[in-house]
Design goal:
The protein is an alpha+beta fold. The chain contains 17 helices and 24 strands. A hairpin with a 6-residue loop joins strand 5 and strand 6.
Length: about 625
């Protein structure tokens, strides 16, 4: 590949150790830049004296902690992701976000080039490692996500590694590990780090009944149910204020030492009640896949690559049309939970340059809309951080942060302005023809660099209920115990069975027209066979791409043609099946309550499997 360069930039008073490693506060968002190599004169130049990035347009950016130029994935992992893995192993929830224009190398950085995530590449890597005195840590082309999982596998004491993958497409969230099942977004609230509302108790039942974004309405919604929720929040706030007033009045009625003790307790209650309640969002019921070997890791990553929505256009042959979020969960022997989220954002694009038309144009508009919502969130958080630095106080100024404006910003609530230790890599293209988009991406990174989080550390007590301390260096202790999870699963299964007996589970209508029902059943069975054939072709295409054989071009072309034909036939049949399902006399959709309870059962079962493994 093209030679690479790295520059660590010790700006803003950061401490630099003799080996060049820069110590940063976990509250800072670590900003890095990766420049895609080019044979043409590069529009992005690195000043060797100051470490600043200078564009041919005259713009200069000095905020990046590190700058990586080139195609060496080993170097990219060491600079972009290895520090996050170290933080995660000490107990912090961590997030790595790849941002940039379309075709700038975000998916290449996260996963690697097409065809590299196959078992054949793992076998080749192992044989090469045995044949040489120096063994590499991962296959040469693999991106930061599989390399991070391999490092967790090699770390002594780490066990039970599992991962989930979801995509945000047109403001809906889909489970990539469960046939793209649509997921709902649940909200939870944390007050001085304590969870006061379960993820399945709010928001998860709204997606069908209220038509919101992923199950949660934006802040500007004025529907009746949103009004009711606002009234409930006001009533809860009034109750808290009444409790504070009664506690203060009782403390004044007591004399002597008792009065002193009561005043202290009242002050504690008052300060606790007036703490800012932080709302977080998460998907409910996504599938967790165990990752035990490098081969299982390759299969997982290949499934993400094959299932995720992508198209080709003038600027990128493999343009992601959705935002992809991969969460890796692990446990250590002492009970410490390790959680790292990898976010591969879809690229911002100008439709006039990409030549997108039809559905691709609508996808580009949805992508740009969600990235604009992320920009508004970053802008408000940056204003808060600057105000805090100016005032010299930790009290944040009043101002609404519009997390609810998009499904993406809701899922990244904990990564920006929340309890995660976050790192962002800005991917840019080096060609002069893309210098305007490069400058725009770097400016966005500059706004991100002033945002501060409140990372929460995880301590090991596997039988303790989780609790958070929402301040830098705070702690979160343990998780729900196995016995409690089993009890919750039994209760949830009982409630799900009751809903199914009541007829809320949907399916074929009893007593409906026999001919129409049989036609729909045959169509669904045939569609399942077609989808399985398409999935097999995608796997074969990925493996063919990874073989690195020049004579394999004919096989790749044949597989692409077969996959396109199979996908087209499946889409035609799927449209017929979906139209038949709209006939209420033969098919009934599951109710919202049933879908919510089924997602809750999947969630509890996944947590239990991880605790028992």
């Amino acid at each position: 590949g093209t030679p690479f360069r790295i520059r660590r930039t010790p700006f803003r008073g950061r401490r630099v150790f003799p080996d060049g490693y820069i110590a940063m506060s976990v509250a800072e968002i670590r900003m890095s830049v990766r420049v895609r190599p080019t044979r043409d004169p590069c529009a992005v130049n690195l000043d060797p004296r100051t470490g600043a990035l200078a564009l041919t347009t005259g713009d200069v950016f000095d905020y990046p902690t590190s700058v990586v130029v080139g195609s060496d994935q080993d170097v990219a992992y060491a600079e972009l992701c290895a520090p996050l893995v170290r933080h995660a192993l000490t107990g912090y929830d961590c997030t790595l976000v790849a941002y940039g224009q379309t075709g700038s190398g975000k998916t290449h950085t996260m996963f690697g080039p097409p065809g590299c995530l196959v078992e054949a590449r793992v076998r080749q890597w192992r044989s090469e490692s045995r044949g040489t005195s120096t063994s590499s840590d991962a296959p040469r082309d693999w991106g930061v996500f599989p390399r991070a999982v391999l490092e967790l596998m090699r770390t002594p004491g780490v066990r039970s590694i599992r991962a989930s993958a979801v995509e945000v497409y047109h403001e809906n969230v889909f489970d990539l590990m469960n046939e793209r099942t649509q997921l709902s977004l649940g909200s939870s609230k944390t007050k001085f780090g304590r969870r006061v509302q379960g993820a399945t108790e709010s928001g998860s039942d709204d997606v069908a009944a209220r038509g919101g974004q992923g199950g949660v309405h934006p802040s500007c919604c004025t529907c009746h149910k949103c009004f009711q929720l606002q009234e409930k929040e006001k009533e809860r706030a009034r109750a808290e204020r009444a409790l504070i007033a009664s506690t203060r009045s009782s403390s004044r009625a007591v004399s002597g030492s008792t009065r002193t003790a009561s005043s202290s307790n009242a002050a504690t209650v008052s300060s606790s009640s007036t703490q800012t309640t932080r709302e977080t969002f998460s998907t409910v019921g996504e599938t967790l896949v165990p990752l035990d070997t490098p081969e299982s890791l390759a299969i997982f990553a290949r499934s993400v690559e094959a299932t995720r929505t992508s198209k080709s256009h003038l600027l990128n042959d493999r343009s992601s049309r959705s935002h992809c979020l991969v969460k890796v969960h692990a446990k250590t022997k002492d009970g410490t939970r390790v959680c790292i989220m990898f976010v591969d954002l879809a690229g911002s694009e100008r439709v006039a340059r990409t030549g997108a038309t039809g559905e691709a144009k609508h996808e580009a508009q949805a992508i740009n809309g969600s990235l604009s919502a992320l920009g508004r969130v970053v802008k408000m958080l940056g204003e808060r951080s600057r105000a805090n630095n100016t005032r010299g106080t930790h009290k944040a100024p009043s101002g609404h942060v519009p997390y609810r404006d998009a499904s993406l910003t809701m899922l990244l609530r904990d990564s920006f302005g929340g309890g995660s230790c976050t790192s962002v890599v800005i991917n840019v293209a080096g060609e002069t023809t893309h210098v305007d988009e490069t400058a725009c991406s770097l400016r966005f990174g500059e706004r991100m660099s002033v945002v501060r989080n409140e990372p929460t550390r995880v301590l090991g007590d596997a039988n303790a209920r989780s609790s958070r301390v929402g301040s830098p260096g705070g702690t979160k202790v343990g998780t729900l115990g196995v016995a409690d999870l089993k009890r919750r699963l039994a209760v949830a299964n009982g409630e799900l069975n009751a809903l199914e007996l009541r007829g809320d589970g949907g399916g074929f209508v009893k007593g409906g027209p026999v001919t129409e029902i049989e036609s729909l059943r045959r169509g669904m069975e045939k569609l399942a066979v077609m989808d399985a054939a398409s999935a097999k072709l995608r796997v074969g295409l990925a493996e063919a791409r990874g073989e690195q054989d020049r004579e394999n071009a004919g096989k790749i072309a044949h597989l692409r043609k077969a996959l396109a034909a199979s996908a087209k036939q499946a889409e035609v049949l799927r449209s017929v099946v979906e139209r038949q399902k709209t006939i209420k006399a033969i098919w009934a959709e599951p109710t919202v309550s049933y879908a919510r309870k089924a997602a809750e059962v999947r969630q509890i079962r996944s947590e239990l499997e991880m605790e028992e493994s």
